[in-house]
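Researcher: I'm preparing a figure for a lab meeting and need a structural model of a single chain. I don't have an experimental structure, so a prediction will have to do for now. The sequence is pasted below. Please return the structure as tokens so I can convert it later.
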Amino acid sequence: MKITVIGAGNMGSAFVSQLVRAGHQVSVTARNGAKAAQVAAANTGTSAVGISGAARGADAVILATGFADAVNALQAVGDLKGKVVIDITNPLTADYMGLTIGHSTSAAEEIAKAIPGAEVVKAFNTVFAQVLAEGPDFGNGRKVEVFVASDSERAKQTAVAIAESIGFGVVDAGGLKNARYLEPLAGLNIYLGYGAGLGTAIAPTWIRKA
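Model: Understood. Here is the structure written out token by token.
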């Protein structure tokens, strides 16, 4: 699959590494072009591309920026009509211990409104960057689960295929409005992992009977 990753921070670089290992054709772009180039150089076969037109030819675009930068970043990469956009953002406060929006909307819904025509799917927002980088195996046969929420079945199946290709389990979380629940869940993860000092291994694994 041809995938463009927007963002070269901890999540963006972890995505690039995992996607390349899984055999995807990956491009990375970022506001800081030098940082995108560093990520590409560390992952053989990855292309660092300029922001303008970065989405051209991609089967999916992974949005790995902060929520505050999300809309501007998506608008900069070109025409996203009919494109699958995987939104991993969380609308966090400056101290990472709260959310700036919620209850009646979500970051994912606001992004979808701002980028009409894009097929937005919420996924990976509850996964810590360290967990993504290290891989989904939690030990004892358990795998970290990725929640996937979208109003587009095609977008949902694309996100599922990407998650499964890099070894994660998947939970269908319904429509995009359910991002209103997934984003607070990410906030709880962050509090437990960092605020309460329990570490990134606290990220939930949803154990289902075989």
